[in-house]
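Q: What would this chain look like folded?
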Amino acid sequence: MNTVKHATADHPIHELIARRWSPYAFADRPVSDEDLRSLFEAARWAASSYNEQPWSYLVARKSDAAAFEQMLSCLVEGNQAWAAAAPVLALGCTSTRFARNNNPNAAAVHDLGLASANLTLEATARGLFVHQMIGIVPARARAVYQIPEDVQPLTALAIGYAADPDNLPEKYQARDLSPRPRKALAQFVFGGAWGTASDLVR
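A: My prediction, written as structure tokens:
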């Protein structure tokens, strides 16, 4: 793993957060079923509005070539170029309505994000990496997996072990080797009025 990707935090944060990053280069090394089950167990225990747990994941492993190619075809072309090397691909979907009353669930996308964040931190704890992508083809995913209309296919996840980026196309090499810039707290933690930095972070 590239040490340049270790976060340089302005304030103390957990080591797992500092180590988490999203590589484009993945090693030709399988992820065990045991590890994958624990990743999705972590997603299972994410917080959600009214405990709705609206998320679902479709999973394909490279060991099943046909299933993997089917999943890969649901990514936009630019993501297929590098994600094909990952040993595991998943599609993150979320139910857009509450099961108990069929009302729209405004928190559904937020809750899928929480579940995937849990999954990602569990992966980091196990020496694995997750690269999430918004670049999917939802209509293709719906057709391939017969996803119901009230379920939104939203993101893809490449899961595996980070590799040396030398084998990546040049534009992806640069992304894997570049630092991880972040906004200062004062740019997004406000107090009193929008855009005014909170006293906490001045």
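Residues 22-166 form a domain with the NADH Oxidase fold (CATH 3.40.109.10).
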